[in-house]
Amino acid sequence: MTAAAAEPRLLLVTGLSGAGKSTALKVLEDLGWEVVDNLPLALLDALIEAPVKRSEAHRPIAVGIDSRSRGFRPALLVKQIKELRENGGRDVQTLFLDCAGAELERRFSETRRRHPMAEDRPAADGIAREREMMEPLRRWAEHVVDTTNYSSNDLQQEVRQRFGDADEGEPVLNILSFGFARGLPRNADLVFDMRYL
Predict the structure, then answer these.
(1) Whose C-alpha in 99, 122, 163, 186 is 20 to 30 A from the C-alpha of 174?
(2) Which residues pair with 62 in a beta bridge?
(3) pLDDT by residue (tens digit) across 46-92?
(4) Local structure of residue 87 (DSSP, 8 states)
(5) How far apart are CA 146 and CA 74, in angstroms?
(6) Residue 52: per-residue pLDDT
(7) pLDDT tens track for 26-48
């Protein structure tokens, strides 16, 4: 086991609005990560230094930060990441979710949501402003995922492959015995009739 693998993991999840940050954070939470979304930058150090139980000391933390986060400035965030790495004690990485502008426009149109940086203008204006503002973070990130051609399931699988433990990718098989007199189990994917045996 390497020294980096023994350190608690901290993953900063960021990217363009509409590129899939919420989906990625939900998957990380399902994988057992502690997840905090839209954390103000001023509280990042407090979160990392907060006392935890010994049994949870090595539980990884994922923090969602984007242009809507209070006090968000990409240059300041890059500086904080550098300081965290220099101080040691944590394996700090950044996941940046990117997407083509036309696809982001389509997603905002489908969901009828306004872009957070263009509340009174077309989504394309906000997307262009946000892309320019987020460029320093994109260059800095270790993991850049372009979700333009991804479905929600594709992104979930990508996050599981990159950040899940090797043994967590194994399928889970649940076997249940039941009687037809009480009806089929509601959450059964496959049912085999064994009465003929």
Answers:
(1) 163
(2) 11, 35
(3) 887 776 666 566 788 899 988 887 778 888 888 888 887 887 767 88
(4) H
(5) 19
(6) 65
(7) 999 999 898 999 888 778 778 87
- 188 pLDDT more than 70: yes
CB 164 within 8 A of CB 31: yes
Looking at the DSSP assignment, which residues form a beta bridge with residue 96?
14, 144
DSSP 140-162: H-SEEEE-TT--HHHHHHHHHHH
Q: What is the pTM of this model?
A: 0.75
Classify residue 70 by its DSSP letter. T
The encoded tokens of residue 123 equal 């989504």
- Secondary structure element (H or E) that encloses residue 4, with its range: helix 3-6
Q: What amino acid is encoded at 75 in this protein?
A: A
Give the DSSP H or E segment for 34. strand 34-37
Which residue(s) pair with 12 in the sheet?
A: 63, 94
Residues 59, 9: contact at Cβ < 8 Å?
Answer: no
Contact 46, 99 (CB under 8 A): no
Which residue shows structure tokens 């020294």? 3
In angstroms, what CA-CA distances link 176 with 17, 187, 189?
Answer: 43, 11, 11
User: Which of 1, 28, 2, 3 shows the shortest CA–CA distance to 12?
Assistant: 28
d(CA 153, CA 155): 5
**Which phi and psi angles does 31 have, rounded to 5°?**
-80, 0
